[in-house]
Amino acid sequence: LNVNKNTIANHNLLDLIEIDKKQNEVLNGDILFTISSETPEEVGLASLWPYDDTNIYLNSFCFGFRPNSKINNLWLAYELRSLKIRKNMYKLAQGISRYNLSKKSVLNLQVDVPSDAEQNFDSKFVKLINIQTKFLSNERNELLLLKKFLLQNLFI
């Protein structure tokens, strides 16, 4: 589910997995975590699933958390990728060649939750920055392609 790369999961980047009876279906608003990786930096990364798709299940390297309290799930996804939380995740990672987290240790992490208004402001602000960053990155890539084309065709 591309949890490592995206704070907001991309439902166009899904892989096929074998479904097992013990798995729960991923639902809109779920927070997904990586629990196993080759590097401690990738363990415990969180991603929000904001879609109503059906028949979506996690692979064995992830687990899902379904917040049951009133919280802005987008804010929570961003908060779980903050430096403060990431440092705590690094401490929980165990292993040598492969790093793992226990679901229990992740669920025991303390997260300071601000007011609803602050959650909404923060999540909208960061989302706008991400949109602008993606736009500028795409624009940069287009300019690099143009530069390559011009260099290949101007200096023949």
Structure explained in plain terms:
This protein is of the alpha+beta class and 156 residues long. The chain folds into two domains: 1-112, Alpha-Beta Complex (Adenine-n6-DNA-methyltransferase TaqI, Chain A, domain 2); 114-156. Helix content is 39%, strand content 11%. It is built from four helices and five strands; from the N terminus they run ββββααβαα. It has helices at residues 73-79, 83-92, 103-107, 116-154; strands at residues 30-34, 36-37, 46-49, 62-65, 99-100. The strands form two sheets. A three-stranded antiparallel sheet has the order 3-1-4, covered by helices on one side. Strands 2-5 form a two-stranded antiparallel sheet. α1 (73-79) packs across α4 (116-154). The chain is globular, with a radius of gyration of 19 Å. The model has no long low-confidence stretch (mean pLDDT 87). Belongs to the type-I restriction system S methylase family. It comes from Lactobacillus jensenii. Residues 12-143 form the Type I restriction modification DNA specificity domain.
